[in-house]
Amino acid sequence: MTEDDNSQQDIVFAHPSEEEFARILNFYQVSWEYEPKTFDLRWDDEGNVLEAFSPDFYLPEQDLYIELTTMEQRLITKKHRKLRRLNELYPEINVKLLNRSDFKAMMYKYGLDDQEEELIGQHPPGPQSG
Prior knowledge:
It is built from four helices and six strands; from the N terminus they run αβββββαβαα.
């Protein structure tokens, strides 16, 4: 994201971990977009969308979508299913899931481990949309 783009203050992030991830991207001057595209995954017989997926971030210079989840591993089955379906329907789309342990490792790397409860939560949130 550049200075000319919308500032981070204009964005309402769904979770504090997403806001912190955006700060890290900004620090390293990595261009990003927040939830820029929704991919339809399932339709009814009339063609109405029944299920869709909006990855959290898009990194245009890498042509990569990032889905960030801080849910415990046992709770992300639905998210994994959506990612598999996205890969089936849109094989040209590059998407990476950063799970709770990936995010915790990133926090430690960037000296944010003292903010774990604030950014990840002591008790992970329930199922997230996405």
